[in-house]
Amino acid sequence: MKVMRQNDRWRWLTAGAVAVCLLAFTLLIGLLAWQGVRAFWPQRVDLYSFSQPDGREVRLLGETLEHQPRFPAPADEQGNSAGQVHRYLIKTGNRDWDAPDFRVVYSRQAASVSQPKAIMVLQRRSHGQAYGWFIGLREDNEVLTARNPDALLHQRLAQVQLLVRQANQIRRVEMARVNSQREQLDEQATQQRAAGRFDLQTQSEYQANQAALQRRFDHLSETLASLQQQSQRDVLILRDVHGIDHAIPLTEIVDSWKPNAMTLGEKSLHFLHQLWRFVSDSPADGGSESGAFPAIFGTVLMVLLMSIVVMPLGVIAAIWLHEYAGRNALTRLVRIAVVNLAGVPSIVYGVFGLGFFVWLVGGTIDQLFFASALPNPTFGTPGLLWAALTLALLTLPVVIVATEEGLSRIPDSLRQGSLALGATQAETLWHVVLPLAVPAMLTGLILAVARAAGETAPLMLVGVVKMVPELPIDAVFPYLHLDRKFMHLGFQIYDLAFQSPNIEADRPLVFATALLLVLIILSLNLLAMSLRHRLRERYRLMTQ
C-alpha cells in the first residue's frame, strides 16, 4: 500500500508538471496572438479637441492607444508637480509631414472626442499609416469625378497594384533571365578565347546572339518604363487634421479603409485580408509595415536544408558509435566531445561558420570554379548554404544523442535472432535495427528543428540580412540559389524590436512575427511527431 501511495504521488506530480507546461505554452500563444494579431483589426479613429489655457484649440486625429484619467502631472521648470491630469497616447500617423506619429498629450480637462465616419486610413509602403479625409483622385493633375468616390479609389488602386506586379514580374523574372543569358554568353566567349577557338564564325554568332539579347532587354526596359509611368499617374488627395491637402501616389498605398463607418462583418473581412497580406506579402523597401513572406520562406527553406544535411550525418555517427565502435578511449572521447558540443554557445558556431565555411571553403570554391567572377565573390560570402551547414553543425550533437539513445533501447535479442537466421550485420542493421530506431531519429529531428528555427545570432554572421530583394528560388537556372542571402523570422524579430526607427509602430509586428515563428516550429514538430507515432505503432509488436 505504501508503494502504491508513493506511485500515486509521483503520478500526480508528473501530471501537474505536464499541466503547468501546457498552461505556460497556451499563455505564451495567447499573449503573442493578443498583442500581435489585434493590430490587424481596424481600430476606430478619434478626433480630439484640446482646450489650451490661452483659449486656443488643438486638434489631433488618430487611434487612441491609452487613456489615463488620473495621471500625476509632469513637473514644471521649477520641479514642482501638482494635481492630476489626463494622459493620452495617440497614434497620429502622417509620419512624413507631421512627425512623430505617436503623441503623448497631457490635459487638465478631458478632451472632446468624436469619431467622424468620413475619416480614412491609408496603409502605405513607407512612412507608416496616414489619417485624414479623402478629398478626391487626380490623373495627370486632372480631377476624377464619380458617383461613388470610394469605389473609384479601390478600382484605381487595384489597377495600380496590377501594374506594379507586372513591372516586378518583368524586372525580377524576365530581365533577370536575359541578364543571366548574357552572362552565360560572355562566359562562353571568354572560354573560347582562352582555348583559341574564337574564330570569325564564332565571333559573328556571338555578336548576333548578343545583339538579340540586347534588343530583348531594350524592349523589356521600354515596357517596364511604360508600366511605371502608367502606375504613377494616379494621385490621392488626403486632407489632414490641420486642413492641409497632401498628394499621395497610389503606388505608395497598400490599402485604404474608413474604420468608423465599417460594420462588424466588414471589419472581420478586413482583418482576414490584413492577416493574409502580412503572411503573403513582401516588406517594402525602407519600411517594415508590409509582409513577412520572404522571412517565412527563408526560415522554412533553411530548416529543410539543415535537416537534409544533419540527419544523415547524425544517424551515421550514432550508428558507428553504438554498433561498430568498441568501448575504448576513442569512443569515450568522441562521446564527451559530442556532449560538450551541445553546450557550446550558438554565436561560436556562427564565428566558426564564417571562418571555415564562408572564407575557407567558399573562397576555395570561388578560386576553383568561379575565377572569372573574382574579385566579386560567389560562394565566398555569407549565404543560404553556409547558414544551413552552420546550423547542421550546431544541431548535430542533438541528433547523435537522440539516435544513439534509440539504438540502445532496441533489445539485443532482435539482433542476435537476425544474425542466427543467417543475416549479416549490415543486413541486420538495415532491416531490423534502423526501422525500430526511426522514431528516435525523428525525435532528434524534432529537437534539431526546434533549436535551429529559432537561432538568430549565428545566422547574422553567415547569411541572414534585413532586406533582400530576391528569394533564393526563382525562374533562373539553377533555380535554387544557395549562394544568396536570405531573410529569417528570428532576425526580423530582432530588427523590429531593437533596430527599428519607430519602435512603437513596429511593436505589434514583433509579437505577430514571433507568433508566426512559433507556429512554424509547432507545425514542423507536429508533422514529425505524427510520422514518429505511426512508425512506433507499426514496429511496436516487434519489440514485445
From TrEMBL:
SUPFAM superfamilies associated with the record: MetI-like (SSF161098)
Any idea which UniProt keywords this protein has? Cell inner membrane, Cell membrane, Coiled coil, Membrane, Transmembrane, Transmembrane helix, Transport
Main location, first listed in the record: membrane
Tell me which residues make up the ABC transmembrane type-1 domain. Answer: 296-528
> From which residue to which does any coiled coil extend?
175-230
Topology relative to the lipid bilayer, per the entry, is: Multi-pass membrane protein
Q: Does the keyword Cell membrane apply?
A: yes
Question: Cellular location of this protein?
Answer: Cell inner membrane
A GO CC term assigned to this protein in UniProt? plasma membrane
Q: Its domain of life?
A: Bacteria
Q: Which residues cross the membrane?
A: 295-321, 333-360, 384-407, 428-450, 509-531
GO terms (BP aspect): phosphate ion transmembrane transport
GO-annotated molecular function: phosphate transmembrane transporter activity
What's this protein's family per the entry? Belongs to the binding-protein-dependent transport system permease family. CysTW subfamily.
Q: What is this protein called?
A: Phosphate transport system permease protein PstA
In its UniProt entry, the species of origin is given as Pantoea brenneri
